[in-house]
Design brief:
Elements lengths: L1 H34 L9 H37 L2 H7 L4 H43 L2 E5 L2 E6 L2 E8 L5 E9 L5 E12 L4 E12 L2 E12 L8 H4 L8 H13 L5 H12 L3 H15 L4
Antiparallel strand pairs: 1-2, 2-3, 3-4, 4-5, 5-6, 6-7
């Protein structure tokens, strides 16, 4: 029985991987073609290709269930067309036993989907978005713990939290002169982009002039050079691209602050169910295979 398990499992696994590679290659090709429309001086074709390579784990995670369905249909269908399924049934194996052997391969594919979606894809996706945003805007951002640091000309900007709707909180802007002497510190509780500039709320502005300093408390302050909106695409990751652990932690934050969490709840449960879709696809393929067998 172990020999049959290995044979059926290897057949399903290899067929699924073949379909997966074909679909992934097509996705990479069309994504690269789409990126060619955004080429500019810093975002070259080579950068676009690098971006595509880093988003492939996410694309693969999305395509894996479809690849398993197609691959299992083709591989098991080939066994049926070569009468190998008939031989297995004639040797005394029941449909349930054959299905169990196929589902054992499905468990390996389910583990592969979990690793791809929860470990590889989120890290690669974040790197891809940073790479593209840096090439498109010329800005850089560095994560340090829970905060994000960015540089804009002579300003060094620290952002405590970035919310999915592009709202920022706990912002500090350090402004230096050309000799890198500290000239100004701006601290704000919140920041919101109005389409043209950033509106900072609850602001404390400290200006330094040689041996003196002046402190101002402002309700609002308008800034144009805080963070480029395009950069937020790399700093604020979409819900569906977060890992289960990151989604769970963010849901706890939304619950504690009594914010609407419906979008992230949906993304969380879709992430939980996603690996099991590999088994579901195999179960969907089995009736077609057994239905084509001769009596």
């Amino acid at each position: 029985m172990n020999l049959i398990d290995r044979y059926l499992g290897r057949t399903v696994f290899m067929g699924s991987m073949l379909a997966f590679m074909v679909l992934l290659a097509l996705a990479a090709f069309f994504t690269f073609i789409d990126q060619l429309g955004d080429l500019r001086q810093d975002y070259t074709a080579l950068k676009a290709l690098e971006y595509v390579l880093f988003i492939l784990p996410r694309k693969g995670y999305e395509l894996l269930p479809t690849a398993i369905l197609l691959g299992s249909l083709l591989s098991l269908g080939a066994l049926a067309s070569n009468s190998e399924m008939v031989v297995l049934r004639a040797s005394g194996l029941s449909i349930l036993q054959i299905s169990k052997s196929v589902l054992k391969a499905g468990l390996i594919l389910m583990l592969l989907a979990a690793v791809l979606g929860e470990v590889i894809a989120p890290i690669a996706e974040q790197h891809a978005q940073k790479l593209r945003a840096k090439a498109m805007t010329g800005s850089t951002a560095v994560h340090s713990g829970q905060s994000v640091w960015s540089k804009n000309q002579q300003d060094f900007i620290r952002i405590g939290k970035i919310f999915p709707d592009s709202h920022l909180s706990d912002i500090t802007v350090y402004t230096f002169d050309k000799e890198y002497q500290l000239r100004q510190i701006i601290q704000a509780q919140l920041a919101e982009y109005d389409g043209q500039s950033w509106i900072l709320s609850e602001v404390t502005k400290t200006q330094y002039d040689q041996d003196r300093y002046q402190v101002q408390h402002l309700q609002e302050l308008q800034m144009h050079g805080l963070v480029q909106p395009e950069m937020l695409e790399s700093l604020s990751v979409k819900a569906q691209n977060l890992s289960i652990i990151a989604l769970y932690r963010y849901l706890q934050h939304l619950y504690s602050s009594r914010q609407d969490a419906s979008e992230y709840e949906l993304a969380f449960w879709m992430k939980v169910i996603k690996p099991f879709s590999t088994l579901i696809m195999l179960l969907l393929a089995l009736p077609f295979v057994f239905g084509s067998m001769r009596s």
